């Protein structure tokens, strides 16, 4: 309990630091944001008016105060981070709260992340356990070579290649299974939702399965050497139960830890995958904001992904502790 | 975000320490010679390095510079580039540039970014990890917090901000864009070394030979420089090899998104982005396959090599 509390304290400290650093970084990076936001060929007066409207002409600490407490004077209601409900700032370009923007994009990114997580964990568990069953034999060798190759294909290249083979070449052959991109909400049409996300999931699957299959395998090998596994086998427990009930249960910890990290990273914005497949998610929004100089959105999304990262890590910690309260296999 | 500048716990979970009985290096080198992965990976890496070094030679043979455009001979009337031929080995791209020459030049660029970035990360990470592990207590807490903060930052968005920060008054970069890429990648990979080295140092400090050195009154600096550093250096170098391919992918990804190595300098990432954006690779697939193949083979070579090095470092790993 105390450990969890001190971890929570550290997590909060981390978030504060991420917020302050991103805030300063964006203020440093965009030297004249009002000019970026103004229409092209705007008069200096217009630029000055825009700067005044968003308080961009004030010193950074005043801007920080506006970000935290007031928000821009657009709708009359305060939209700062410290108000309730907390708001992650107000987009200059889109004139709307960043929180709304994130909530609008979240279903897309969450579909991508959750779907990929489920698929890659199931597939890696299966492949990892089968490889660990007879280490050094044919299946192990094949998956080992496969995971070396999978690990060596960068996500962006994998995505482009999948598009080329599974969309372009198949379409040429008259088979149209996969769309080139886009997103259909789950609530609208679950089948179309899965069809549109199939290629993005597959893209993420290449590298994730390559990583996790190795993790599951080496963790399983460690567990399978334990005395209680030998005891279970000696008692005549069927091999499938030895592997999946006794072995896998104990071998899951590294999968949970690493899985949390990867899941948080994707949920915080899978910029590459979203870009290639035209998914209008959080990563895409962050990229657009960074290019157009809309820095409340950059700060907001950075903070959002940091929160996701910290929360997922805390969750992983709690799960690991619940599964193994005495730290026996830690 | 699917770019992986993160820790592989399968490797980190096992804390590996080189045997200090016969000296940290000798046992390691002996194990090294037995590893087939090292030989296979080493051969691939050597081939890539050789191709990169020979880039000017290939350019002289074909008479195509990496940024020279041959719109007349390499692009037809519809703007479609030619495929592989005796003169254009991997065909040409949409501007009539030689894809093979650009891909081997891209190898130079890739290594010129990946190697210094990883080395910088190694130096910073090892130093901070050593300090955290050796002094412990509050120092350790502060450094661990910095690691946490760094890990919580999204890689690509921060990279974008830093690239924009580098834009001077009239849009000209203040420092060369390649330097920014090196710093961004180092910034996001030093934590890997810091975590590993910290763990190693904490374990080493409990070892009898360090206790013995302490009890005979050896100074802290002597213990650090004569006892601890020689013991963690092989491990740090092996993890340099683990991190390098990740950083090569990092550079390619940044360049793919247009925030890394900028045109006209060829990089595998911006070549693939080019191929995808123009959709010309659908009629001239080598625009995509050329740089793609180089990238995958290079990363594969370093992955095999570093995996073999890890096995040599910790024989228990390669069951």
What summary fits the major beta sheet of chain A? Answer: none
Q: Tell me, what's the shape of chain B?
A: elongated
Query: Termini of chain A, distance in Å?
Result: 17 Å
- According to CATH, what is the class of one domain in chain B? Mainly Alpha
Major sheet details of chain B: none
CATH architecture of one domain in chain B: Orthogonal Bundle
What class do helices, strands and sheet pairing of chain A give? mainly alpha
Q: Count interface residues per chain for the largest interface.
A: A-B, 65 and 50 residues
Write down the CATH topology of one domain in chain B. Answer: MetI-like fold
Descriptive account of the structure:
The complex is a heterodimer of chains A (330) and B (319). By secondary structure, chain A is mostly helical. Helices cover 72% and strands 0% of the residues of chain A. In chain A, helix 1 packs antiparallel against helix 14, helix 6 crosses helix 8 and helix 13 runs antiparallel to helix 14. The model of chain A has no long low-confidence stretch (mean pLDDT 83). Chain B is an all-alpha fold and 319 residues long. Chain B has a domain at 105-266 and 285-313: MetI-like (MetI-like fold), CATH 1.10.3720.10. Helices cover 69% and strands 0% of the residues of chain B. In chain B, helix 8 packs across helix 9. Chain B is elongated. Chains A and B meet through helix 1, helix 6, helix 7, helix 8 and helix 11 of A and helix 1, helix 7, helix 8, helix 11 and helix 12 of B.
How are the SSEs ordered, and which strands pair?
The complex is a heterodimer of chains A (330) and B (319).
Chain A: H1 2-29, H2 33-37, H3 44-53, H4 60-70, H5 98-133, H6 138-151, H7 155-172, H8 190-224, H9 227-234, H10 239-251, H11 253-267, H12 271-276, H13 282-292, H14 295-323
Chain B: H1 9-13, H2 26-33, H3 36-53, H4 55-62, H5 71-74, H6 99-135, H7 137-152, H8 155-165, H9 177-205, H10 208-215, H11 220-256, H12 268-278, H13 286-313
